[in-house]
Amino acid sequence: MTDFDTILLGRKGRVGIITLNRPKALNALNSQLMREVVSAVEELENDSEIGAILVTGSDRAFAAGADIKEMQPKSYMDVYLDDFFSAWDRLAAARKPTIAAVAGYALGGGCELAMLCDILIAADTAKFGQPEIKLGVIPGIGGSQRLTRAVGKAKAMELCLTGRNMDAEEAERAGLVSRIVPAADLLDEALQTATTIAEMSLPVAMMAKEAVNRSFETTLTEGVRFERRVFHSTFATEDQKEGMAAFVEKRSPVFKHR
Ligand code: CO8
């Protein structure tokens, strides 16, 4: 796998692991890191042996936000002409399931990066927030939209307007994270979840992801219609034949990811 400067790219079985690695800056998301994550995502998406993508940081910080020192000198024209931060959309557009394993700070762009992933697993040390307002800006990687969809208007509004953080317990209660685990177990637990997913049929997991995500983009009637059409199409996969045969024959399925 490719070597990068600001991230580590590894794999365990069918899981690709992206570890943010700018420890001195608490994994602040600068342009280089953004480019490297996007390129790692492309590499994992194109690797037929990979069935899920895990994104994680360090014990102290998943990521303490976009890199404030890099942003400070920028003008409106700089950020507008570059469409600053738009490259992160590539992670949201990943077709394979993505899991964020978050310990420590996930603030600003860090919280947004975690929310770009499909499943968010938090260590009991995790802290989430959108503190951009304290810097005189607003979230720029989808925070105002994805946090609101995840936790509802009242809490999202409070977090975006006051900049206060929420701990892992509050984040779980609010529906932002799927579960909390002890910090020492975070990587193992997240890897186990990622491995479980990666061992399912890849095309069917991709279809399930697409169907759930559609619920954020459309009406209930259209969403249910979309789901039904995709459900029908699972019957065109070899893995549906194998999955159902395995059940009837009382054995474990061996998916071919086709
Ligand atoms: N950017 C750059 N450097 C950072 C960042 C950051 N976001 N966060 C931490 N660092 C650096 C610190 O500057 C420090 O470096 P140095 O040792 O060289 O001084 C090092 O990391 C360690 O940080 P601290 O000494 O501050 O560590 P503490 O444990 O005391 O505090 C905190 C940890 C509370 C996380 C603190 O570092 C902090 O508040 N960080 C900033 C959090 C923040 O505001 N994040 C939001 C950033 S804005 C954003 O993400 C989206 C902006 C959208 C703009 C849209 C434009 C289009």
Number of strands: 10
Query: Spans of 5+ residues with little confidence (pLDDT < 50)?
Result: none
User: What's the order of the H and E elements?
Assistant: EEHEEHHHEEHEEHHEHEHHHH
Distance between the termini: 24 Å
Beta-strand level of the residues, as a percent range? 15-25%
**Sheet with most strands:** 6 strands, mixed
Structural class: alpha/beta
Query: What is the helix content?
Result: 40-55%
The total of helices stands at 12
Hetero groups: octanoyl-coenzyme A
- The outline comes out as globular
Strand order of the largest sheet: 1-2-3-5-7-10
Radius of gyration: 19 Å
Average pLDDT rating:
97
GO molecular function: enoyl-CoA hydratase activity
EC number: 4.2.1.17
Function: Could possibly oxidize fatty acids using specific components.
Protein name: Enoyl-CoA hydratase
Task: Note down, in words, how this protein is organized.
Keywords: Fatty acid metabolism, Lipid metabolism, Lyase. It comes from Rhodococcus tibetensis. InterPro entries: ClpP/crotonase-like_dom_sf (IPR029045), Enoyl-CoA_hyd/isom_CS (IPR018376), Enoyl-CoA_hydra/iso (IPR001753), Enoyl-CoA_hydra_C (IPR014748). Pfam families: ECH_1. By secondary structure, the protein is of the alpha/beta class. Strands 1-2-3-5-7-10 form a six-stranded mixed sheet, sandwiched between helices. A hairpin with a 2-residue loop joins β1 and β2. α6 crosses α7. The longest helix has 15 residues. The radius of gyration is 19 Å and the shape is globular. The two termini are 24 Å apart. 39% of the residues are buried. The mean pLDDT is 97. Bound molecules: octanoyl-coenzyme A. The site of octanoyl-coenzyme A has 22 residues, from α2 and β6.
